[in-house]
Write a structure and sequence with these properties.
single chain, 159 residues, Mannose-Binding Protein A, Chain A, 3-stranded antiparallel sheet, 26% strand, elongated, DUF1566 domain-containing protein
Length: 159
């Protein structure tokens, strides 16, 4: 058995103090994340309004988004809003894209009412997500309710 001396204990304490300081410095220093967003020229078609960039969960660029059209009346069921967008050759916005529209295209949207998103409600197939134009909240409605329809164009990164 090795004999424990006071010098050995001090040496071990010094070694542990250095390890602890090193660990605390590593934990206290946040790691940076680098995200590169490529420069682009986005060509908008007549009547379109640029909404912005849609990101993936990791913060990388997924696609860009343009507001194409809003139905003049709140007369669309969830399925009807999909038909509205599809007839124009586009799609409905997702919940995240709907928030982007509210943030960047507010002057081109109605002041009141709500519009359908492309997201069905996960817990009940009879409901889908919608976005309120006044407060910006997303909430669920029965798919049979009538709301506004919005068409958006997803602009791929290669465009």
């Amino acid at each position: 058995m090795t004999q424990v001396t006071l010098e050995a204990v001090y040496a071990k304490q010094t070694e542990l103090a250095k390890l602890t300081a090193s660990l605390l410095a590593a934990v206290a220093t946040p790691k940076t994340t680098r995200i590169e967003i490529p420069a682009a020229v986005v060509e908008l078609r007549p009547g379109e309004h640029y909404a912005g960039e849609v990101l993936n969960e990791d913060g990388t660029l997924k696609h860009r988004l343009a507001l194409v059209a809003v139905s003049p009346e709140a007369a669309h069921s969830w399925e009807g809003s999909a038909e509205f967008a599809k007839n124009l050759g586009y799609s409905r916005p997702t919940r995240d894209e709907a928030r982007l529209l509210l943030a960047n295209c507010r002057p081109h949207l109605p002041k009141e009412g709500w519009f359908w998103t492309d997201d069905a409600y996960e817990q009940n197939a009879a409901y889908a997500w919608s976005c309120h134009l006044g407060c910006g909240y997303t909430f669920i409605n029965p798919k049979s309710y009538e709301g506004l329809a919005v068409a958006v164009r997803l602009i791929p990164l290669t465009a």
